[in-house]
Amino acid sequence: MAQQFSESVxxxxxxxxxxxxALDSIAPTLAGKxxxxxxxxxxxxxxxxxxxxxxDSAHRGSLLFSNQKIIHYTWQAPDPNAKKALLxxxxxxxxxxxxKYVIAxxxxxxxxxxxDAPASxxxxxxxxxxxxxxxxxxxxxxxxxxxxxxIGHSMGGAAAVLSATLPNAxxxxxxxxxxxxxxxxxxxxxxxxxxxxNDSLINAIYKEVEKxxxxxxxxxxxxxxxxxxQNVQGLVVHDEDDAVxxxxxxxxxxxxxHATFLKTTGLGHRLQDASVVEAVVDFCIEx
Length: 287
What we know:
By secondary structure, the chain is of the alpha/beta class. The protein has 2 domains: 1-39 and 184-215, no CATH class; 45-183 and 221-285, Rossmann fold. Helix content is 45%, strand content 16%. It has helices at residues 7-26, 28-39, 49-55, 99-107, 130-144, 155-164, 184-195, 199-213, 222-226, 247-257, 274-285; strands spanning 59-65, 68-75, 84-88, 111-115, 149-153, 174-178, 233-239, 260-264. Strands 1-2-4-3-5-6-7-8 form an 8-stranded mixed beta sheet, with helices on both faces. The chain starts with 6 loop residues before the first helix and ends with a helix. The model has no long low-confidence stretch (mean pLDDT 94).
């Protein structure tokens, strides 16, 4: 997860880590539960003024997920039979990040939809992870139909994969993953490093995930899940200077999926460059 903190905030996080390590020595189950709550709590970022103006250009709708109002957006193409693309943002982001992509996709003839994940943008909620977001996507698709293309950035990419591999899910024809991570365990370990968590506490977080889901933590591997999507045409875009998810992870996902892999340089994690937008749109319209 892409998080940057001031030194004062980092000190608070490390103090929290020390307390959780101490708690883990006497009550590991509780420590794992509390640490997982912290892991799933994004800092809510205000929607920037220019992004809010762009989102106002869409038709806005909502759905109710776990008693939370989740906001979604639609930019309708003139053709009522136009293909549909669903866009899923990453951690501590919102649908405003897709402006360049939406403009290009609508110009190419697509109806474009996007969802503000729980605890993000204009949606309600306090907790978020890729599994939660995948369930929101599942509910959205049940109400609005299967899109032709799903595009996900970072955590949104993981949510795209997880939603498409849920029981009874109908996958899209195409899927594009931007700056996606390969293994949920690596993301949790990175979070643990930020906290200064010991190995016992990391394992307690894994056990909390497994208790909540009834599924081993390894089952949330994006690399393993994409292998189930061999009939979905895939594009994985990853920058070699990505400081959030190493480029090697994008390559692993693409190889497991037999997908097209596009490596960029100097763009970092966000992948907002015009060349990437063009490559994504070209992939959406080809064939």
